[in-house]
Design a protein that fits this description.
By secondary structure, the protein is α/β, with parallel strands linked by helices. The chain is built from ten helices and 15 strands. The strands form four sheets. It has a seven-stranded parallel beta sheet with strand order 6-5-4-9-12-14-15, sandwiched between helices. Strands 1-3-2 form a three-stranded antiparallel beta sheet.
Amino acid sequence: MLTEERQQRILDYLATEKIVKSHDLVTRLQTSESTIRRDLSDLEAAGKLIRIHGGAKLIAKVDAEENLLEKSVKNTQEKQLIAQAAASLVKDQDIIYLDAGSTTYEMIPYLKDKDLLVVTNSVKHATLLADYQLATIIIGGMIKLSTQAIIGAHSVKQLEQFRLDHAFMGMNNLHADYGYTTPDIEEATMKRTAMNQAENVWVLVDHTKFGGTSFAQVATLDKATILTDYCPKEVLDSFTQKTTIKEFMS
């Protein structure tokens, strides 16, 4: 089989399956692992796919992000477990940042008895924080309608004025080589700024976020400690070489 034909077959598989494993490609295309590695490397260099641990996936489109409602109904139990663990890190008099996201949103009920100041770029978060009578600063700027996150140059400039004890971040994907990623460039800039302004940075994600990538890089893995329900065994080693992972399985 010609190289061009083989690589087109790989792209055809990805078009329908979204993720393909290297060992499956070896069997399907009746070739060697080294050939598949070269094909995936060539296709990644051409911008056709993204290599992940053990295979490859389609490149996420900028507009492919789920809206807030779609995110909030997924893995709710795991998110609440992570959120409770994250909230236990917060002490009275702390100044914290709550990034827009469904898992950070779950933290708010666990903060209700603490004396703290919360900074957030989420309209939804700010509303619930006010309901719990928690002192809150909401960042100003443009509202991203799909996630209710506030983004843009004005937002970044305002956030750069604050120093934070903790930043609790949501994230779309985590990859051992590509780090923390999100589909939206402006949201990536906002997340990166919050992480830079905080003494302690925590990324709150459930196990489904490991190994994938999105369009815009936020930061490398070493910039935060990961709080999760668990990290899949097949990616654990590659991640723990670059960051700290704290698992909170029920």
